[in-house]
Amino acid sequence: MRNKIIDFNKLLKPCLIASAIIIAVGLVLTVVLGPVLDISFGGGTRITYSYTGEINTDTVAKFAADTLGKKVTVDTTSGVTDNSQKLTVSLADKESLSTELIDKLTKQLTSDEQFSANSIKQEEVNSVSPSVGSVFFAKCLVAVIIAAILVVLYIAFRFRKIGGWLAGVSALLALLHDVLIAFFVMIVFRLDIDSNFVAVVMTLLGYSLNSTIVVFDRIRENRRAFGSKQTLVETLNMSNTQVLSRNVMTSLATFVAIFVVLVVCELNGITSLRSLTIPLCFGIISGAYSSICLAPAIWVKWKNASDAKKAAKIKK
After folding, report:
1. Are 72 and 90 in contact (CB under 8 A)?
2. Which stretches of the chain are DSSP H helices?
């Protein structure tokens, strides 16, 4: 790789086509399947039980659905310090469960023979109205928008000598691409969109931005060193090739770490982290791809077009 310069500018068109196809398919799946909102965003009821021994979440989910007459999701968690085990029954609905239905479910779970060895006890009940969930979702959305605006401002200021605003918008488009990929993963895997997904979005904003800045920083250094001796396309290809191994290895190391967490959680029946680890794994791959193949090449296209437009005005 040290002696070979990759033509990333030439790769832009096929990469844009591939991304457009993925986004189009994702949008269709979103319309057809629809997102699954956690009670934190869509409203509903969450009942937490303590239990002992081994328990099958699918069996509990079917039992609870038959008892309540409504679809529920069941997750289990384990305490790190006290080895406590929690069973969480969640129902996303426009109306919270009545006290009578909650008591009925608790009584059935604690008295049914198939769960007699688990010593199930009710610990906590949380109910969220749809209006409160909407307010919480709006606040999370505002936080993401503010973070995105700050990203553009930061990059625009830091790389102002090489067309900072264009670089900032290019980076923002790459970030939007990564967030959409993570969102589509939630749709495909039918994962609840909850506070974990907000954490995924904020993580990708920081992680993908860091990889993009590495590329732009090398472009700025090479522009300073070579100036007009190189075209923007040549500077792009050289800079991206120089930092390619660094970005790939960093992304790979991060992906492996998150994937190990996912595997360990699945082996131990900890399903509450699926909405964090699964979209984050795909988001990290997408972040590496967009930082290398999309953002810098889009910036070069816009910068060349902007420079050509300025030159035409001067001639007139």
Report:
1. yes
2. 8-33, 39-42, 57-68, 99-111, 130-158, 164-188, 195-226, 232-267, 274-289, 295-315
Half-sphere exposure of 213 (CA within 13 A, CB side): 15
Fill in the amino acid letter for 134: S
Spatial CA neighbour of 211 closest among 257, 171, 255: 171
- pLDDT, tens digit, 9 for 90 and up, residues 197-236: 888 988 888 888 888 888 888 988 998 888 778 888 999 9
Query: Rounded to an integer, what distance in angstroms lies between the CA atom of residue 227 and that of residue 206?
Result: 30
What is the pLDDT averaged over residues 94-99?
A: 74
Q: How far apart are CA 46 and CA 40, in angstroms?
A: 10
pLDDT of residue 124: 87
What is the chain's length? 316
Q: What are phi and psi of 119, to 5 degrees?
A: 50, 55
Say what the pTM is: 0.81
**How far separated are the first and last CA of the chain, in Å rounded?**
44
Model confidence pLDDT, tens digit, residues 99-155? 888 889 899 888 888 888 888 898 888 877 766 667 777 887 888 788 878 877 888
The neighbouring-strand residues paired with 90 are: 46, 73
Computed over every residue of the chain, the mean pLDDT equals 85
- Rounded to 5 degrees, what angle do the CA atoms 23, 182, 269 make? 140
Cα angle 234, 238, 241; round to 5: 140
List of residues 6+ apart from 214 with CB closer than 8 A: 243, 246, 247, 291
